[in-house]
Inverse folding.
């Protein structure tokens, strides 16, 4: 059962969520990009804006309509909410008594979560909650999250979720899912995906969706899926990469890669961290924090006796083969959801799809020689 919420009534969703004590984080325009920030009302959404993306390129553009979610994905992902860049683990005073930090989780509504981002959250759930050990900080933040997904109607040129098992329509993992419809009137098809979502939906001034509304929403998702057809050949990618660990392509990509780690920071599934210890200037307190790290940093693979990945070649190979091969062995799925962020935000425009295609072509050339 789906409902219709008029665009002019979208603030009722803000009121229903604020009334339940949620802070609302969603898309807004800042510094020439659509980023995630705390929103007060629908007026903060990026009305009429879209993002044009290409390798090493991201620009905002006007759409010529008032769409509120007419963009693909920006540089931020929900990882920053669930796995913040810096989390304090413990603090100690001169008496050497340590105090474990409590998760500073507050009820937060994630507004505008794309289906690829639902997939990324599901991946991080498996990493932090699905194994033998659960991460308490992640668990606390996750338990306080209310997810409002928005189907993707306008993927960027770099999106390829359909090639890695996803799609532009939200299917599960949300409390509410919206599909934005612009014609003949600006409105949202709304579906609840949980009892919490049903309760919020009950507070909104909605009416039942007509068959034409449901068809229009399906057409939005189908159009987005069509736009992404054939963008990445992931056939047998797990074995392909592991068969080609000594491919000369790793040397070629290492010539271009700066080892900057931007791709891992922008990626919604990358989760590497390390710990830092800091003491106050007067020496009264010390604390240990967990901070984001990247497998592209030289120090990341530094251990007693040496460095296991001393070259850019070895670090890029580690990243790509983890994303598209060994992640599957470790967690049962690919580590890539096809959002394209690592391509747009790579300063030299390295494209994960091109690297796989090059290795595939090289292998085929050898097989035919
Ligand atoms: S590897 Fe790239 S395309 Fe895949 S999820 Fe990460 S940022 Fe997105
Ligand atoms: S692939 Fe691009 S973004 Fe990633 S480390 Fe290399 S240069 Fe940086």
């Amino acid at each position: 059962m789906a409902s219709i919420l008029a665009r002019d009534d979208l603030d009722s969703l803000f009121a229903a969520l604020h009334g339940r004590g949620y802070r609302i984080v969603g898309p807004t325009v800042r510094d020439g990009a659509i980023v995630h920030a705390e929103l007060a009302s629908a007026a903060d959404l990026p009305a009429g804006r879209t993002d044009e993306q290409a390798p090493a390129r991201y620009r905002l553009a006007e759409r010529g309509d008032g769409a509120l979610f007419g963009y693909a994905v920006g540089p931020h992902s929900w990882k920053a909410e669930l796995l913040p860049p810096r989390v304090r683990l413990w603090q100690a005073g001169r008496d050497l008594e340590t105090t474990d930090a409590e998760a500073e989780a507050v009820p937060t509504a994630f507004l505008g979560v794309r289906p690829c981002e639902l997939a990324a959250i599901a991946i991080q759930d498996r990493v932090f909650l699905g194994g033998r050990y659960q991460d308490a900080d992640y668990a606390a933040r996750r338990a306080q999250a209310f997810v409002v997904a928005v189907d993707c109607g306008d993927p960027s040129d770099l999106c390829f979720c359909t090639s890695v098992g996803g799609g532009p329509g939200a299917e599960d993992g949300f409390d509410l899912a919206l599909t934005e419809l612009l014609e003949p009137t600006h409105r949202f098809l709304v579906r609840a995906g949980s009892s919490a979502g049903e309760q919020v939906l009950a507070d909104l001034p909605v009416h039942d969706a007509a068959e034409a509304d449901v068809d229009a929403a399906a057409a939005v998702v189908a159009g987005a899926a069509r736009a992404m057809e054939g963008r990445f050949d992931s056939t047998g990618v797990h074995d392909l990469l592991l068969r080609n660990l000594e491919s000369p392509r790793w040397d070629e990509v290492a010539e271009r890669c700066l080892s900057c780690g931007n791709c891992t920071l922008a990626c919604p599934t990358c989760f590497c961290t390390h710990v830092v210890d800091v003491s106050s200037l007067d020496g009264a307190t010390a604390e240990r924090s967990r901070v984001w790290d990247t497998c592209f940093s030289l120090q990341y693979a530094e251990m007693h006796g040496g460095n296991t990945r001393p070259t850019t070649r070895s670090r890029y190979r580690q990243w790509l083969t983890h994303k598209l091969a060994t992640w599957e062995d470790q967690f049962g799925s690919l580590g890539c959801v096809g959002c394209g962020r690592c391509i747009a935000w790579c300063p030299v425009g390295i494209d994960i799809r091109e690297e796989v295609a090059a290795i595939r072509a090289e292998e085929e050339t050898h097989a035919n020689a």
